[in-house]
Design a protein that fits this description.
Mean pLDDT: 83
Low-confidence stretches: 1-12, 324-335
CATH topology of the largest domain: Leucine-rich Repeat Variant
Oligomer: single chain
Number of domains: 3
Order of helices and strands: EEHHEHHHHHHHHHHHHHHH
Helix content: 55-70%
Distance between the termini: 62 Å
Number of strands: 3
Number of helices: 17
Strand order of the largest sheet: 1-2-3
Largest sheet: 3 strands, mixed
Strand content: under 5%
Length: 335
């Protein structure tokens, strides 16, 4: 006879289980059913899987063996990050800031390993909230690394959005925090690149977060960067173009009608479409040529969809980008 069902929580994605309940089940297999540790672990995994329990984010190891959960590199990284700066935040030493940067970079790397489950483990153990707190700390030294780690957490391991982590990001005030950081660091390429990576990751497949960023005037910020007269950074910020494309992609299957058409109109109205066209005029020498082309195509696609739906004159706001410009770069030939 198999072990009794452990306490689990029902969710839309399936039933979940806590790390403690999982560990207790493995211990029960060892102590009550006299299984060897490896067999006990495999039986617990198989039993829970057959019961429809989602083990995402669970550290599947034998409790106490080899250090157990605490020996997991992701857990160790999070535990150390919690310690750093937790007491005297205004008096943190440079060596601690250096260690924090190293840990955040390590966390980003681990969460980006496909198939490892590390991003889910970090999310289940408070990683999103923790990294957001480091971003809000105001330590400029750690901002770029913290944003990079946050983007990895939100993307998960296969460069797709993780709805659990993005919801935590939303409820933790993440959109406001990130947009404020971007506004305050418009000349820092590393912060901009990693910050817009967060915008892109959080907005993927999430209409609510798309709306949040639009309400925070992310479009105006993008336009400010694209129209920077120095032009020193915009070509290097590949994630900015990714953010434009994703904000204008109706990829949230939880909603009946996406708002991205309105966002595309707004982007065109404030001059983003024209700025993208201008960036392409630099030709093959432009470092952002491919990314800018893809972003521009996203706007063009929504423009074409709008023309099919209505002839009410709304497309007049697109006229600040001449049709000749669109055709000259071949963006509309398929639409």
């Amino acid at each position: 006879m198999g072990p009794p069902k452990p306490p689990a929580t029902a969710t839309k994605a399936g039933r979940t289980i806590s790390q403690e309940a999982f560990d207790d089940l493995v211990k029960e297999n060892i102590e009550d059913l006299e299984m060897d540790p490896t067999e006990a672990l495999q039986d617990a995994i198989q039993t829970l899987t057959l019961q429809g329990v989602d083990l995402t984010g669970i550290v599947t190891c034998v409790p106490g063996e080899g250090g157990g959960v605490k020996a997991n590199p992701v857990i160790q990284c999070l535990d150390r990050l919690k310690q750093l700066g937790s007491d005297l935040e205004d008096q943190i030493e440079q060596k601690d800031l250096d260690e924090m940067v190293e840990l955040l970079d390590k966390l980003a790397e681990m969460c980006g390993v496909e198939g490892s489950g590390n991003a889910a483990i970090a999310t289940k153990n408070g990683g999103v909230e923790l990294v957001c707190s480091k971003i809000r700390s105001g330590w400029e030294r750690v901002l770029a690394s913290a944003l990079k780690a946050l983007a990895s957490l939100l993307h998960g391991e296969e460069y797709v959005a993780d709805l659990q982590s993005t919801e935590i990001f939303r409820t933790s005030g993440g959109p406001t925090t990130v947009v404020c950081i971007l506004n305050d660091n418009c000349q820092n390429v590393d912060i901009l690149n990693n910050g817009f990576s967060v915008v892109a990751a959080a907005s993927t497949g999430n209409e609510v977060l798309k709306e949040s960023f639009m309400e925070l005037k992310i479009g105006e910020l993008i336009m400010q960067i694209l129209s920077d007269p120095s032009g020193q950074s915009k070509g290097s910020i590949q994630s900015l173009y990714d953010a434009i494309r994703i904000l204008l992609t109706p990829d949230d299957n939880r909603v009946v009608a996406s708002q991205v058409y309105g966002y595309a109109r707004r982007f065109a109205k404030i001059g983003i479409a024209r700025a993208l066209v201008d960036s392409l005029h630099a030709g093959l020498s432009s470092p952002g040529l491919v990314s800018a082309s893809i972003a521009l195509k996203a706007i063009a696609k929504e423009f074409a969809a709008a023309k099919k739906k209505t002839r009410s004159g709304e497309e007049g706001i697109w006229q600040d980008v001449s049709i000749a410009d669109w055709h000259s770069i071949g963006m509309l030939k398929d639409y």
